[in-house]
User: Fold BCL2 interacting protein 1 from Lates calcarifer.
Amino acid sequence: MASSADVHVRICGQEIIKYDLEIKALIQDIRDCPGPQSALRELNSQVKEKFIKLRLRIQDLEQMAREQDRETDRQAIQAETESQRRQMLSNQTAWRKANLACKLAIDNMEKDELLRGAENQSTRQRKATKESLVETSSNITESLMSISRMMAEQVKQSEDTIGTLATSSRTVQETNEEFKNMTGTIHLGRKLILKYNRRELTDKLLIFLALALFLATVLYILKKRLFPFI
Assistant:
């Protein structure tokens, strides 16, 4: 029948094996961890707890070895203790390597995300720049069309002004011609007055006729200028 000490040794050994397997499983989870850093920290926290429990159970097993009465039992338990201690050190080494590999993978992934984000931002900026250039080009085109319309209106106004000046010039020329004609008529009247100066009645008649002709001419010009519709 197994003694109480043997039972405790077996229970302690089973717990050590259980913690060892749990640590190995957590180390594999760390290798496969896709991130983020918070998930990695949570896994590391669990591994630390398991290592603390494992170390305590190995110490318990070592203490049990010293309490054994038979040398063979003591040596067997000490050998198991050393084996478990070496396994624990191996797990610690594997744990550190898994952490390094996982951190490197997470860093690379974050860098890739940053690069993709920068590329997306650059693409959005190029799109925004292109839209801005299109809008600017459209505004410039509208401005040029507006300037063109204004220039066309100015040209039309200039043409109308030139036409008005040309009409006014023709009117002035016609008026000058009429005044020239009137001047010739006055000269003719003066000659008639001089010719018939010796004859008072005739002269007066000629003067009256000349004046009447002059007045008629003036009235005609004034009528034509002031009342063209009559």
Summary: The mean pLDDT is 81. The two ends are 155 Å apart (CA to CA). The chain is about 90% helix and 0% strand.
